[in-house]
Amino acid sequence: MVKILIADDHPVVREGLKQIISKASDLNVAGEALDGMQALDMIAKEEWDVIVLDIGMPGRDGLEVLKEIKRQKPKLPVLILSIYPEEQIAVRTFKIGASGYMNKEAAPKELVNAIRKIYNGGKYVSVSLAEHIVADLESEDKKPHELLSDREFQVMRMIASGKDVDEIAEELFISVKTVRTYRDRILEKLKLKNDVEIARYTINNKLMD
Question: What is the mean pLDDT of residues 125-134?
């Protein structure tokens, strides 16, 4: 029996995922987390076979939670769920250590297969994402946000969500000066002028959850 932890802040979504998984006799949802911090706590205290992680939960950024999971348990398979198309953030999550990435709309048809695949050591990639990755490999042009480091990408998303430098510094346990440095790099790399333009760029490129 595959022991699964679902981390998602929406009760209706968790219930829906559990119902889908319950149809498979070899899979068992043995725990639920309401946010990233609770998920990390449960992962530290207990052994799991697969983590199903919503990347858009409140509190700690989903990418940061994924990084911490892989630091604690490098071999633990993590399936990322998102409301946005895979090509927007998926490649970055795979670089961090995700074993799979799925748009929530695909869950009813693909969730069980994806969990089984990553549990057995494979990677779950949808057909559309595979096509996007191939297209990217064939193209020499990179989108500006693909030039951002993981931390810069994280700060960009936090700025776009309306958080100020003090809030970001407190949440990431870094200094305000460091946050401002990241912000300056983001503005430079994206060729933008202010936080409003950062927010507009992030939303227009569907980089928010």
Answer: 76
Write down the residue that tokens 């319950």 correspond to. 22
The CA–CA distances, whole Å, from 175 to 59, 116, 134, 148, 166 equal: 18, 42, 39, 20, 8
Question: 81-116: buried (b, 16+ CB within 10 Å) or exposed (e) per residue?
Answer: bbebebbbbbbbbbeebbbbbbbbeebeebbbebbb
Distance CA 166, CA 175 (A): 8
State in words which class domain 2-137 has. Answer: alpha beta
What does the pLDDT read at residue 201? 95
Domain spans in the chain, listed from the N-terminal domain onward: 2-137, 144-204
Against a cut of 0.90, is the pTM above it? no
Predicted confidence at residue 143, as pLDDT, reads: 81
* Fold designation for 144-204: Arc Repressor Mutant, subunit A (1.10.10)
